[in-house]
Design brief:
Length: 255
Amino acid sequence: MKLLMLGSGTSTGVPRIGDDWGECDPSNPRNRRSRVSIIVENRMGQRILVDTSTDLRSQLLANKIAKVDAVFWTHDHADHCHGIDDLRVMRYDRSNPLPGYASRKTCEKLRRRFDYVFEGQYGYPTLMDLKEVEQSQMVAGFSFDHVEMPHGPVTSTGFRFEADGKVIVYATDFSEITPRMVSCFKGSDLLVVDCLRKRPHPTHAHLDMAIELARKTKAKRAVLTHLDKSMDYETIRAEVPKGILVGYDGLEIEL
């Protein structure tokens, strides 16, 4: 089983427009962060894409990804879904729509915002077959489970993917650790975890909270993601405990 981190940055990316690098060293390529999304891949080569970030086209080109077998969304915020149109080319050689999964609320919002993707328009075929996630499903060679996580006044869906005897958890955009999250994420081989900055934030995890989730779930390794311009790669790498990695665009981890 393999993780590919397509994007590791916050909603404005690093640098922000205006060449604003904040505290990040612009000479380190691992500080250049596009908006968050990941791919998980099993040994058969089946791939699940989580979130269609606003930088999706450039991410897929940079990592030579031409197709995926299913798409999951954590929630409907722009940085996590507004790259959805870049999935059109993946429909060209398919006889049926690409499978998509999200929570009920996220499904409703995606269908309203991107109706043409899920209904087809003007002679163009439906691009995606969107379904509400259920507990303990099998999709594209992966079994998965999910949990709703507090994300300020709304929620984001955390996912647990299992294949080839390994577990990858994706928990981005949360602001509180709940008992249900700990139960769902327990014992992962790799936890990809929200970590906006060092200081607490009203809608995102900060560094101490990210480390706390890794500790509570007994994750073998954790990777920090959704990093803002205050999180210089080398600085944070020198500060985090053993077993905690600082994510970056293009990071691959094989389990």
